Amino acid sequence: MNSHIHESVENYLEIYHELYRELKWKTNNQILMMISLLYTINEKKFVLSDLIDLSEYIRKNASIFSTLRSHQRFTTAASLITKFDEPKKAFNELIELHDLLVSSGLKKGPYTIISALALMTTRQHDISLEERIDKALAIYKGMKGYHFFLTSQGDYPLAILLSKSELPTEVLMEEIEFYYSNLSQLDFKKGNDLQFLSHILMLTNTENKLLIINRCNRLLEQLINEDLKIRKMHYPQIGLMSIVDRELDEEITLINEISNRFNNTKEFKSSKDMNLTMATLLVISSVIKNLYDDITIIETGISTSIEALVQAQNAALISSITATSAATIG
């Protein structure tokens, strides 16, 4: 196994088991897995007391009906610690942005908090917050225009990330639909996860969309041929894999090996779909970091922020976990 990937896997497991010992009665397994992933792919030293301290600070300072008083305080604390030097100060800014998003038209809830975090980590000096939010709202309405029944509050964070695009909203939506319709004619099944994938691919800002579409389909076939059980929830990770401009045979084999290892770990045995997601993100994040300054990471015609793509993956994943976790106040 590649040494960097091996270190990432061991670090992920070490963080998870420390979290499990301390928090297994306070939150669910998927939350603990997500926190472990955030620390690992951001290469942030894990200090359990810091996470607990910040999660308690968030709980105490959140409004009484906020989902930040529930499981979401833990993923939010992990996100702030791994992204900001002063996480408590960043939390106060997060609340201000959340309130700004709500006053602009987004509905209160867990996805608006994730959206505020996405906005914080992608702020642009040359564009005001109001302009970004107005464009995000227009993009969200555009999503609903194309896929009314698929689009929900879970799409707020990706609308925020897509609002960085310089393309007019109408053009942006047409190109997203180009991805969606073409992928659905291949081996991808229609639905919200394919819409997520289309949004993520749009962040690559590539001129050669058919190349990326074909690469996604080829990767899907490779993963299936490796006897991996690919669900629709795994589509976004295929998008991240597609930006690497070389064959990923060795990495796909590694994904299988790591996924199997997780499946045989006592605490993970009932989370096989998530195990595959975690294995894929650990491997591909490592590959991208190693190739970040290498021209092989970017196919000719692609202009992208790798960080934005990784954030989009995280936003999609945290959103899906939040959907089943945030309702329980803890």
Structure description:
This protein has 330 residues and is mostly helical. It has one domain. It has 15 helices and no strands. It has helices at 3-23, 29-41, 48-61, 72-83, 87-104, 110-121, 129-146, 156-162, 169-184, 192-202, 209-225, 235-241, 249-263, 272-291, 306-325. The longest helix is centred in the first third of the chain and has 21 residues, at 3-23. It starts with a helix and ends in a 5-residue tail after the last helix. Residues 294-304 and 326-330 have low confidence and may be disordered.
Sequence stretches where pLDDT stays below 50 over 5 or more residues = 294-304, 326-330
Looking at the structure, what is the overall shape? globular
Oligomer: single chain
Estimated radius of gyration: 19 Å
Report helical residue fraction: 55-70%
Beta-strand content: under 5%
Number of strands: 0
Measured between the Cα atoms of the first and last residue, the distance is 40 Å
Main sheet?
none
State the gist of this model.
The chain is an all-alpha fold.
SSE arrangement:
Layout: H1 3-23, H2 29-41, H3 48-61, H4 72-83, H5 87-104, H6 110-121, H7 129-146, H8 156-162, H9 169-184, H10 192-202, H11 209-225, H12 235-241, H13 249-263, H14 272-291, H15 306-325
Helix pairs in contact: 1-2, 1-14, 2-4, 2-14, 2-15, 3-4, 4-5, 4-6, 5-6, 6-8, 6-15, 7-8, 7-9, 9-10, 10-12, 13-14
What are the key terms here?
single chain, mainly alpha, 0% strand, disordered C terminus
